[in-house]
Amino acid sequence: MKLQGKVAIVTGGAQGLGRGFAQGLLGKGVIKKVIKEFGGLDILVNNAGVNGEEPETWRRTIQINLIGMIEGTRLAETYMDKSAGGRGGLVVNIASTAGLVPMFHGPVYSGSKYGVVGYTTSMAADPKTLETGVSYATLCPAFTATELFEESHETLLNNNTGLDLAAKQITDAGIQTVADVVNGFLQLVEADDNNGFVMAVSKQKGIQYVHRRPRKPRANKL
Ligand SMILES: NC(=O)C1=CN([C@@H]2O[C@H](COP(=O)(O)OP(=O)(O)OC[C@H]3O[C@@H](n4cnc5c(N)ncnc54)[C@H](O)[C@@H]3O)[C@@H](O)[C@H]2O)C=CC1
Ligand SMILES: CCCCCC(=O)/C=C/[C@H]1[C@H](O)CC(=O)[C@@H]1C/C=C\CCCC(=O)O
């Protein structure tokens, strides 16, 4: 997708990755911000996310990371759907590599992110995308230096079990900067036919396409 003149919303854009994604988009043209003011929506980035595993926080993790992402996607579709007067568009859902591989210190977080990957790739596989003109892509960053990572890391260090294994997981993936992830994000958004793409970005392995699905959805051969 060419970015100049497009209208974009980035949820959770006040800090961390969300702020990086919004700034990255702004650097690519005269990106406009608000549907009411600009009469349409071309890109939604469902970025807002939290990590809480405690009895009083785990439901909020599912609520924001998974349910909020589904609600945001559904709302965006009502503006983007070509068969309902929209002009098509792109939904980018921010998962995590914890949505591709297990994170034993964060089963609820990891479960919510596996949900994001499953939901987004399933939406992309729906033949209806050919009528609606809406594309769905998933971005899976690994450890990235933000407040969320700092908080999670502190919680991990206060936990006495599995520290060696966690340290190895962090060393294997490395800790990347927001700019590293924004670089992958812009490549994903600007790709010509990105429906169904799942991109992982990590310090050690860089940008990897975990999954590329052709524009024309195909039935699964199960
Ligand atoms: N930092 C990391 O290592 C990784 C982060 N991610 C994902 O990237 C996304 C962004 O994370 P970070 O920038 O690291 O976190 P962050 O904590 O630095 O920023 C998250 C932003 O989302 C906002 N937010 C949280 N709940 C919200 C809600 N209900 N409504 C609106 N805004 C809300 C926060 O106020 C904050 O501005 C999240 O979905 C996270 O799960 C994925 C992989 C790795
Ligand atoms: C291995 C356990 C580490 C737990 C502590 C931690 O640093 C968690 C960080 C998460 C942060 O809250 C948001 C994320 O998505 C981070 C986890 C990201 C990737 C985990 C899987 C890494 C991999 O092996 O690719």
From TrEMBL:
<protein>
    <recommendedName>
        <fullName>15-hydroxyprostaglandin dehydrogenase [NAD(+)]</fullName>
        <ecNumber>1.1.1.141</ecNumber>
        <ecNumber>1.1.1.232</ecNumber>
    </recommendedName>
</protein>
<keyword id="KW-0560">Oxidoreductase</keyword>
<comment type="similarity">
    <text>Belongs to the short-chain dehydrogenases/reductases (SDR) family.</text>
</comment>
<dbReference type="GO" id="GO:0047034">
    <property type="term" value="F:15-hydroxyicosatetraenoate dehydrogenase activity"/>
</dbReference>
<dbReference type="Pfam" id="PF00106">
    <property type="entry name" value="adh_short"/>
</dbReference>
<dbReference type="GO" id="GO:0016404">
    <property type="term" value="F:15-hydroxyprostaglandin dehydrogenase (NAD+) activity"/>
</dbReference>
<dbReference type="InterPro" id="IPR002347">
    <property type="entry name" value="SDR_fam"/>
</dbReference>
<comment type="function">
    <text>Catalyzes the NAD-dependent dehydrogenation (oxidation) of a broad array of hydroxylated polyunsaturated fatty acids (mainly eicosanoids and docosanoids, including prostaglandins, lipoxins and resolvins), yielding their corresponding keto (oxo) metabolites. Decreases the levels of the pro-proliferative prostaglandins such as prostaglandin E2 (whose activity is increased in cancer because of an increase in the expression of cyclooxygenase 2) and generates oxo-fatty acid products that can profoundly influence cell function by abrogating pro-inflammatory cytokine expression.</text>
</comment>
<dbReference type="GO" id="GO:0005737">
    <property type="term" value="C:cytoplasm"/>
</dbReference>
<dbReference type="InterPro" id="IPR036291">
    <property type="entry name" value="NAD(P)-bd_dom_sf"/>
</dbReference>
<dbReference type="InterPro" id="IPR020904">
    <property type="entry name" value="Sc_DH/Rdtase_CS"/>
</dbReference>
